[in-house]
Amino acid sequence: MKIIIGGAGEVGTYLSKLLTEEDQDIILMDTNDEKLNFPNSYEIMTVEGNPTSIHDLKVAGIKNADMFIAVTPEESTNLTACMLAHNLGAKKTIARVDNDEYLQARNLELFLNIGVDSLICPETLAAREIISALKQPWIRQWWDIAQGKLILLGAKIRMNAPLVNKYLHELGSENRIYHIVAINRKHDTIIPSGSDQILPGDLVYFMSTPEHIDTVKKLAGKEDIQIQKITIMGGSRIALRVCDRIPKNVSVKLIEIDKAKSYKIAEKVESNILVVNGDGRNTDLLIQENIKNTDAFIALTGNSEANILACVAAKNFGVPKTIAEVENLDYIQMAEKLDIGSIINKKLIASSHIYQFLLRADVSTVKCLSFANAEVAELIARPGSKVTKKLVKDLRLPKDMTLGGKITDGKAEIITGDTQILPGDYVVVFCMNTSMRKLEDYFN
Predict the structure, then answer these.
(1) Neighbours of 424 (CB within 10 A)
(2) Do residues 44 and 20 touch, judged by C-beta distance below 8 A?
């Protein structure tokens, strides 16, 4: 595919690097040529130009573009660029926006009519991820697959967990209620086989169904945590979107260091949210605000280091659930090593939602896992495709690919070696970045 990306900011640059690993034909545009310098190892064509310039879009080859993605910091620029790109020949367009109102279903047709096929709002997506993490606080990461009929979750395995030191072949049974699809260990991702062992400290990814989540929780050695009191550090746009989505029976304290901003936020939020003017990194302030009785601490300032350190402090005070926004990709592994809880990264979230448009196979969901160098895809098995011709154990799948679950006639099923994939099945695949492009060979 020929993909033109307008905007060489953090999202555009990260997405460009990610797509080069999929052998996509990438052209990155920006008005600032200093942002367009890449190491020779990245096969990215760059064009110094304005994505809202008809001339510059033509120079970039917009007429033959399969997709145009506008991810500059300005939503008006992105919408205008997509409108122009559509009218100049781009087959699909995606615009990054900041306004929640644009995402409402009644407004989507309006944008389709002007040439914008899809909208993404990183802040809104991040807020949804945080709310999901609060609903299941023992889980590091959670994804609903196929409208929630299948669940993919990541959980840290503690020393007392029943799964510790078990080999995967010891966990097999005819009526499988979960499938371990990946293990993240000391920054390395393992697509496991029966000979792999689960060790303390592993971040294990399970595929299961909603009715068996409690069983997975017990196997991971986790306990229930009731989230009734939440402390949020930072009055960012993500924080405000989180506040809008938190149930009204939950008590929230939002700590904002800027005095004027804290007053403005206090005027907007619901009565269950108390706005405190102060520095959330100040341990005396945290003690004063009764941090020891907080069920969840969420750090959402624009400073990744401050967010990580604040969550470490909250953990030391005994807060059971911590969530940190970490926008610096280099710090994610450090955050995992410090065991601070859930990590939110807008670049990864936005990229994962853009990714679903970039495979020729019938992919309806793709996620870029922030703790694993891997993707999750939900695909339709076409009639006559390779994946339907043999039992799963006889398919000779690549070592860095596994099939987690499937939906047949609306019914969810966890996949084992003896599973037969049928034409029309929705299949959930977990694989490393390098195997993502191999999916078409099996499903088309």
Answers:
(1) 13
(2) yes
* Gyration radius (Cα) of the chain, Å: 23
What is the 3-class SS of 79-94, one letter each residue?
HHHHHHHHHCCCCEEE
**pLDDT per residue as tens digits for the range 297-341:** 999 999 999 999 999 999 999 999 999 999 888 888 788 778 788
Backbone angles phi, psi at 134, to 5 degrees: -75, -30
- Tell me which residue of 344, 251, 355 sits closest to 296, measured CA to CA: 251
Distances in Å between the Cα of 15 and the Cα atoms of 8, 48, 157, 229 are: 9, 18, 31, 36
Q: Residue 199 has which token pair?
A: 């060790």
Q: What angle do CA 377, 298, 264 make, to 5 degrees?
A: 115
Is the whole model's pTM more than 0.70, yes or no?
yes
Q: Mapping DSSP to helix (H, G, I), strand (E, B) and coil, where does residue 403 land?
A: strand
Cα–Cα dist 286/53, whole Å: 50
Report the alpha-carbon distance of residue 97 to residue 71 in Å, rounded: 8
8 A C-beta contact, residue 68 and residue 28:
no
Contact yes or no for 46/110 (Cβ under 8 A): no
